[in-house]
Design a protein that fits this description.
The protein is built from twelve helices and 18 strands. By secondary structure, the protein is of the alpha/beta class. Strand 14 and strand 15 form a beta hairpin. Helix 2 runs parallel beside helix 8, helix 2 packs parallel to helix 11 and helix 4 crosses helix 11. The longest helix is centred in the N-terminal third of the chain and has 25 residues. The N terminus is likely disordered. Pfam families: DAO. This is FAD-dependent oxidoreductase.
Amino acid sequence: MPQSRTEARRTIGSYWEASVPQVKLDRQLIGNALFDVAIIGAGFAGLSAALRLAQAGVSVCVLEAEHVGYGASGRNGGFCCLGGTKLDERRLIKKFGLEEARRFVAYQVAGVNLVAQRLDSWGVDADRHSNGEIYLAHRRKDFAGFQAEAAFLKENFGIKARVLSKTDLDAEGYGGPTFHGGLQVPYGFALNPMAYVQALADQVRRAGGKIFGKSPVTGMTRDNDRWQLETEHGFIRARKVVLAGNGYAREDAPKWLHGRTLPVMSSILVTRPLSEGELATQGWTSDTMAADTRNLLHYFRLLPDRRFLFGTRGGIFENAQSLTAMYKRARSDFDEMFPAWAGIEAEHSWYGHVCLARNLTPFVGEVPGLGGVYAAMGWHGSGIAMASISGEKVAGLILGKLQPEDLPVALRRPFARFPLPSLRKLYLQGAYWWYGWQDR
């Protein structure tokens, strides 16, 4: 039975769902329709592409499996920051050369600025805060390298990072027994990602773009000069297609995607509001977004309403037993890192998918061998800024306003297939064991 826009929505129990007005449900695709461009996935990338195309007068639709904000764009920690790759700046230089590494970092900064400009011009109250991001050394040896890292970033990228000692951390409200020092980077800000993605969807609707909810694409075939995208109750025919499902993409639509990405899990808990006394007892009063230096990192921040958000990487399987174990590990880590809050209840907890690629960089461009099909995916856990700007850029490629060489080389390499894709979760388990050993 086709679902109407008033039928009960699927929820994930996140704080973001509870913090915004009820999310709009776009109607389901029923029947057949013709568009110039069809986009799979109504997240930051897909909606950004749709907005740019609709503003240019292109007939465009977005096909979403659930509703806007159900996937990673409404589940993440709200860090609009540098990132989008698992390659640090040194490895970027080694792989692509200094000039291309600089282009890629500048692209990340432009993504952060784009999101800020959108929120300002649209008048969106997204609870923005935090002047940049701080990385906290979870071992003394990690802090020992911060001075050299700050010098490296300034010399090669013009980034003026600030090094904080343990004494500085305590004085500036970064209290915790496992932190040995910090490196603060002055780019990025925190926000409510659900407020942002809903505002982005509203802009798409106002520009004339169509969003179809409850319309997962189940198949994709070539039909003469157009692509045909099948859904449960109809299909779309379009000359161009954008793949923007990221960690929620089906691997059979199109079949080219099979084995080319690795969705991994990230979990988040949010406490009840903390009193000023509770904050002072722990010594954490800063609202700067933070992450530690582990490979299997923790990321956390104090929200404007004085709740504390704490996220972790890890978790492979999505059955009840594994999800319970993942939450227990996260809670144990939280209690160890913030012992004064060990008895504080978490009012919200949820998880989502992070999309990794074998080459550890995103892909923004036309898919080889599939004329007219483009991808904007692979944000490696930092998708707010990177997906937003990349959606605009892939629209620019479709419109002919950009050429592939206008993008950093790091974004132009199509996803390689993982060897023996059916064993990817076993690779991941081995990687987690290795990272856990390295993080000790």
